[in-house]
Amino acid sequence: MGSVAEKQAGIVAIRSYLPEGVVDNQVLAASLQGWTAEQIHAKTGILTRHWATEDECASDLAVKAAQRLFAGHLCNPEDIDILMVCTQSPDYLLPATACLVHGRLGLRTECLAFDFNLGCAGYVYGLAIAKSLLERGLGSRALLITADTYSKFLDTGDRNATLFGDAAAASLIACGEGADGGAPGIGPFVFGTDGSGATDLMAPGSACRRMAADGSSTAKFFMDGPKVLAFTLRRVPEAVEALLSRAGLTLHDVDLFVMHQANRFILDNLQRKLGIPREKFTIAMEQTGNTVSSSIPLALEAEAAQGRLRPGSRVMLVGFGVGYSWAACLVTWR
Amino acid sequence: MAVSKQEFCRALARALNEKPRDITEDVALTDVTGWDSVGQLSVIACIDELFGKTVNVDKLRSCETIGDIIALFIEDIQ
Fold this sequence. Notes:
heterodimer; A: alpha/beta; Peroxisomal Thiolase, Chain A, domain 1; 2 domains; 5-stranded mixed beta sheet; about 30% helix; B: Non-ribosomal Peptide Synthetase Peptidyl Carrier Protein, Chain A; about 50% helix; about 0% strand; globular
């Protein structure tokens, strides 16, 4: 019992990768009726986003993000015994993208590797899974990679195309001493799912169920923005309150709130509704767009680089979106 | 927080990027230029801020006039 209590998983490091192709609002406005580049920025808070090339897939982005971790001497490939890839745009339905990444990174064969399919709540779910595996002794060094190429689903004639960017983030998670007198590095958690909203945000025909009447399939992205906003304004504040209650904390006890970086409009409304001071509320999607499950780790990496995260900082992460699926957790920064 | 019908119409006008005098109870939503999916986002946020209530989007979309929207929140309007 004592040894389990001492083994508390925490985030050791995060490195990201963005595809080199940058798409700005002028380019997108050319395909959108009645929307100028300035209006795109005003409505979304996004100036640019990175889109993968035709030959670039989630595994490519994932490998590059992980290689940045290794290049920084933050861990060695041979130390990784848990590899988790969160993606909704896998290279193939089979094999798992994690297996492709495992092979390209040259990880050892005594390694647990799998994909899980979640979107904007994926990073927080991934932290929960990694924490569970590590603290039960099923591994010692976990690589949690989020990687998506939503650009491959988007219709550039649809305004929703302005929202999304491609990216990957690799997080090294390991057990070690608690940074704050034994406070958990990750946790507690709150999770939620509402499958009644499953068709409000989807890529119909993108896998095995064909959606078109003529038997053809289209993988084009669909999102009912108003319904997604209504879901967000209802469920995210509930999750924040539930997590604070579970942790015995108030809003003021949290040093930084890092929410899924959906778009500026949603973030501004969440900040208003929750009454979080601007200096404690991360907004970091102007240059990347909504990068799905990578948006939270990208934001954490940016905040750490700017010195806004210090050892012992108490951070709340809240992911929410497609599914509907949502999750929130507290992280003590190391 | 109780809001007057006039205040609610003014708030809707701001949300829809319309002049206040153009947003009255009898106005048909098909005549409101700003009543598209982007406008609906702003209306949902506006109602959340005014009344702390989550909009039922299907009911909102079934509205044909500004008056229909007012009727959805009549309990919160003075």
